[in-house]
Amino acid sequence: MTAAATQQQSLDAVSVGIMWDRLVAISDEIVTTLVRTSFSTIVSESYDLTVALMDRDGQLMAQGTYSVPVFMGTAPATLQHMLDRFPAHSLRPGDVVITNDPWLGTGHTFDINVMRPVFQGGRLIAYVMSITHLPDIGGLGFGAAAREIYHEGLRLPVCKLFEAGQRNDFIVELMRNNVRAADQVIGDLLANVTATKAGEDMLGAFLAEYGLADFTALSGEIRGRSEAATRQRIARMADGSYLNEIQIEGVDGPLTLACRIDITGDAMTVDFAGTAPAVRRGINVPFCYTRAMVLYSMKCLTVPELPNNGGSVVPITVTAPTGCLLHAQPPSPTGARHMIGHFVSPLVFGALAGAVPDQIQADCGMLDLMTFQGRHRDGHDVSTIYFASGGFGALAGRDGAETTPGPSNMAVVPVEVWETLTSTTIEHKRLLPDSGGAGAARGGLGQEVVIRNDSNNLLTVFCMANRTEFPPLGIMGGSPGRLRQHRVNNETVDPKGHYELQPGDRITMIEAGGGGYGDSSGRSREAIQVDLEEGFITPEGAARDYGIDYGTFEPS
User: Fold this and answer.
1) In a domain, 258, yes or no
2) DSSP 301-351
3) Mean pLDDT for each consecutive 10-residue tract of the chain (556 residues)?
4) Is the pTM of this model over 0.70?
5) Does residue 395 lie within any of the structural domains?
6) Number of folded domains in the chain?
7) Last residue of a domain, one of 189, 205, 226
8) Range of the domain at 430
9) How far is CA 267 from CA 58, 239, 261, 291, 298, in A?
């Protein structure tokens, strides 16, 4: 029996399900390889990464279970840009192609995209892509301070890091000579290369085990089933046009984000006409990032139970006016594009509140990122990111989780690891009572984090905070969460600024709470009692938000 015949016979529903799960497991094993071989805490602790498996036609088949949502939305498009530069017929075993161009990759220069073509018997059968946020890429550093893209460091076009297995040492030296913490940067770069090689080996073994010639038929089955399921869920939403407009903090005043979502049958179009123009600070968003955030948001609302692949994005079209804040053009700086781009999800959710109210999440407090640059007290360079998080937005019948990021999913570096690697001290991390928005379901709590410079050297900190002027909104009558704030030595500072911390100086991150869902009169007395006992709300908060006198309160 030929391999093609075996393949045709094997693609029944049960076999597809088994092989689909296996591809996800392979993706997860590649992620494990990446984490274990990385040099920076950004990858090994915070998991600012993604692994994608794509078929020979460049279609997404599977991703690592733990992957950054936006990277998954950009990876297939990045592969197509790579193939425009190096067509499939020109690729050879051992080639590794890279880029960190914001408009070809993930929206800023700080993420490196590493792709390896996979061959079997001399035939191209698939692509493995690994994406990570680098510790540094030169320039001013990771922050919002840049006025144009040229301030934001080394911008690599699509190029071959390895050609037929031979490393291009010029690119390695170019990067080493232009970045801080060069050992970590190059170490993480090569960890991506190692991960893609592990993926190549496992994909070859997969085909051999199942007697398949390539992934074409299996990929088509996976994507076809996902597309059909997505279309079914969209078709359940009422046809119509759904609008939303929000104000967010900008640089010299508020900025407007607007969207219109048109649903017709089993497809939808999301358009961002009415959004403010790009600005001369590093908060602009290339369209690749905007589109990826839309695709993630719609995945949450349609088929979140299915492993991610290219099929679920087919029914969704995204557009935005060229030159607007969500479709920025070169030379606009984009370093802190997440500060604006993360608002795409609440903007979209707010628009669809009238279509699927029981599925919409209240606003999240979102991630808070700070870049620390300087020198460790033992002499080595420090260039790394601290991730903190506000509270998760509440959903129908479900409180928001405390200090949980959304719409992205990076993890916090453990205190002991952070202090060892930076020679700073985290004086405390504590939940902030009453910071989550009141509602029938309560928003997740924010937190306070205080970091002291004990390096005996000057440290420069780049702040990238949002939610400092416009709080996380509640939904369906829920209350907003508390605002975010940054302080240096107890003085409130610009949340998009950069600051020099002398030895002994402290920086404080006060994280926003998530928004509440539903009117607070609908919250059960038992839930309020638990909140009081756990310290999530204070007696004063109970009286203000729920009309409960704690002194006479008894659960029903």
Assistant:
1) no
2) HS-TTSPP-GGGGTTEEEE--TTBTTS--TTS--TTTHHHHTTHHHHHHHH
3) 42 91 97 97 95 97 92 95 98 98 97 97 96 96 94 97 98 97 97 98 96 95 96 97 96 95 98 97 97 96 94 97 98 96 96 94 96 94 94 97 92 94 96 98 98 97 94 97 97 93 98 98 94 95 89 55
4) yes
5) yes
6) 2
7) 226
8) 361-523
9) 23, 10, 10, 16, 11
